[in-house]
DNA sequence: CCATATGATTAGGTTGCCGAATCATATGGG
DNA sequence: CCCATATGATTCGGCAACCTAATCATATGG
């Protein structure tokens, strides 16, 4: 009856989160993408953005954005163009290829979801999603309110 | 209505898992511990183990175990002793200090749990735990069957 | 028109993991 | 008995994903 760390939700969530990330990464690999690219692709589906705005929104430093964009340019998903109004600025926009990749990534994610949820009853699934969303919201983890 | 990666459970779980791990790490820091040490401490609460057995059970490579044990020895939580029956083997056992640290770690984890769950109703909490445990079991992530 | 701020980039460091190579010890077959 | 091979621990080098600080180009306000 001693309470154990591995019984905690914190431990369970950490492990499960890591395992899920790995699985998702495997699914994305054939597309030439990695999990961290997904938030970028999705953000750019709206309008083109500067790199600093991108960095702040997804919560990494500007230098990380440089790397990620180098990679995304490498697979032809995004295009950097100097902002003519402010020539310091790189406007990053999605290519058609990028839009397709973003869709494929969403499909990959959905596949992982299906695998994760396969053992759960429908009401369990929705309860899980609601609970996790509530927690993530409370912890201020979600990109768009 | 377009399905988005960030709407997926996979993405949510990855993010939440990482955030939770960071939070847990902050709680453990004053103890001189990190999340990855916890599984080791807990495993050793049973009987002393060799490092290879440790590695296999927690799912990391032997070289990682070496590092972790160096750290745990550094805070006085474990002791390595050559197995007299097989002198290649290091028998790793918990010290009294280690037992106390393990308890403190469990308390830290419980605190994080409380924070995570604070916004949820009791029935939501148990539903969440059941769902996560079911998934983790299905994915073969739990140390002890 | 110069001081200062801002956007992107580069360089270098840290953490946590991995695989391959190394070293000591054990064990079984000739 | 002794050597080939296996096993346990360790070391070393590498990789991924982040960070900070320094640098460079361009803007902007006094």
UniProtKB/TrEMBL annotation, chains A, B:
Q: Domain of life, per the record?
A: Bacteria
Q: Name one Pfam family in it.
A: MarR
Which example biological process does GO assign this protein?
response to stress
Q: Where is the HTH marR-type domain?
A: 6-137
SUPFAM superfamilies in the cross-refs: Winged helix' DNA-binding domain
Q: Read off the InterPro entries from this record.
A: HTH_MarR-typ, MarR/SlyA-like, WH-like_DNA-bd_sf, WH_DNA-bd_sf
What GO MF annotations does this protein's record show? Answer: DNA-binding transcription factor activity
PANTHER family listed in its UniProt record: HTH-TYPE TRANSCRIPTIONAL REPRESSOR YETL, TRANSCRIPTIONAL REGULATOR, MARR FAMILY
- Full protein name: Winged helix-turn-helix transcriptional regulator
Provide the species name: Nonomuraea rhodomycinica
């Amino acid at each position: 009856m001693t309470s154990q760390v591995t019984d905690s939700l914190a431990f369970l969530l950490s492990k499960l989160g890591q395992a899920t990330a790995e699985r998702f990464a495997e699914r994305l690999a054939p597309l030439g993408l990695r999990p961290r690219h997904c938030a970028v692709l999705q953000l750019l589906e709206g309008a083109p953005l500067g790199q600093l705005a991108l960095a702040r929104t997804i919560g990494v430093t500007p230098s990380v954005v440089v790397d990620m964009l180098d990679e995304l340019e490498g697979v032809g998903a995004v295009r950097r163009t100097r902002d003519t109004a402010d020539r310091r600025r790189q406007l990053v926009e999605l290519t058609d290829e990028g839009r397709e990749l973003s869709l494929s990534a969403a499909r990959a994610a959905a596949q992982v979801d299906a695998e994760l949820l396969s053992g759960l009853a429908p009401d369990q699934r929705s309860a899980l999603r609601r609970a996790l969303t509530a927690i993530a919201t409370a912890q201020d983890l979600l990109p768009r309110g």
